[in-house]
Write a structure and sequence with these properties.
The complex is a heterodimer of chains A (241) and B (334). Chain A has 241 residues and is an alpha/beta fold. Chain A is built from nine helices and ten strands. Chain A is globular, with a radius of gyration of 17 Å. The chains are: A alpha/beta (241), B mainly alpha (334).
Chain lengths: 241, 334
Amino acid sequence: MNAILEIKGLRKQFGGVTALSGVDLTIHDGEILGVVGPNGSGKTTLFNVVTGVHKPTAGTVRWKGQDITGIPANRISRNGIGYTFQQAMAFPGLSVLENVQIATEHSSASAREDFAWPTPMSLLEFVGIPGLAGEKAGILPFGSLRLLGLALALATRPSLLLLDEPAAGLNDRETASLVGLVQQFPAHGISVCVIDHDMKLMQMLCKRLIVLDFGSKIADGPTADVLHDPKVLEVYLGGEL
Amino acid sequence: MITSFSSLRSLVPVLIVLALLALVPLMGPSNRFLSLAISAGINIIALYGLSVLFGQTGILSMGHAALVGVGAYTAALLARDFDIGFWFSIPVAGIMAAVVAAVIGIPSLRVSGHHFVIMTFAFGQLLTIVLTNGGEYTGAASGLDMSKPVTLLGSDIGDLQNFYLLVIAFVTISAVASWAIINSSYGRTLRAIRENEKLAAAIGINVGRHKIGAFVVSGVFAGVSGVLLAYFLRHISPGQFASFPSIYLALMVMIGGARLLLGPLAGGILVSFLPEVLNLDPVQSRILYGVCLIAVILFLPNGLIAGLADGWSKLMGASRRRAVTASAVSEAGQ
């Protein structure tokens, strides 16, 4: 498998606090990679540095061979890295359809002409909320808002999607349908990197798992192996699964 | 792409109102009424620019009169030093005000919210100071005279009635331009920034560049409004573009409502005519404006027009519900 995103020695300090202390990480083409770790272990910071929200203190991020370290958020998106936020968000005062239209209009369409969901409506149908197209995004129930967030990220025609706790706040049924959606992405040429606490979700989604603790990577490998790694059980799961 | 039935529906009422206003001279209005209406119209042109900036992008400028001033001084200087008349001054002043907006916007829009409001206010004051200290070139505190009349096809059209119709024409162009921007994909992009900057950046929008762009666009409207003001008043001075006129512009756009196309029209007319109708002196009218602003912010946060539209649809909804209940009751009775 080809590496599409290569992170080397990534450090991020906020004043005296070290959020990431030299993380190495590779995402391969067509995989669904999981990143787990306790609160404050640096998972969201990792995403924020990759997506240009924060500039890293040291280290490099290479995307398909090109150095993209520290470039602004809007250019990351145009390069084909889409992402969703931990807090589900949309443009609340605009209609659901208008939300997706905006995202579609700003995708770098030239990069991916073969994209599976070329129109705003086809995206809404894919995530399962076409009936809400005319509603204001601000009145959506939480589960639908998450799905809209996913549609917005997809509308930028990414080759890699970073999902930050996509199932937080969803009930079991909603989580199951989300898993169903995410599992289809690799077949459409979209690799996925997902952050979550929910081990059941991670086991369903990811073949490979990375564990962060205090800003360092402490495990990286097939999901089953990582979940039985004594070091992981110790720091993350409190000694037992 | 921009013309659909629902978007045309927002333009038609504005065009109808403007068509009716164009008929006003036929009713033999007083000169006093006409000059007030002309001032209101000149403000409304700038307000349509503010509706793009504030209504669509969510950025409030408290120094907008300064950009109107750039337009007015450009027109006066072009007439005095280059013998350039009204029609050619319009594009030049529009561009000048846009350039100044960019110069102000590039450093100011790095900050947002209240900080930007303060920056625009400071730049507005700065322009007044520059104009006051400009010596003979800007006429210092006493300002400049407009040396040329407005001509169309070689004849002077500077009398009040003609000037009124000229202003109505420019208001119409501004309203249509503002409408076209609001209903384009560019307008959608600006609304996305207003709603959520972080998400806008995440889907590939260059937030900073578009905010400056919206400020520049609003500058063009302000510049054009300034040319009309210079040709109408025949004399301009720095005080006309200081803080109070800026606050009035912001007040008008807030009272009328910035998001709907009728808003600037309603705000401009209301704020200009209210003291006249109620026969208030300047101090009283300032107090009234303050009270109005507080009332609008508390009760009609999207402005008068949006408030009226909401009230109307609630009323219709309530009467429809009553009708449904009544028919349900009568069916149950049968």
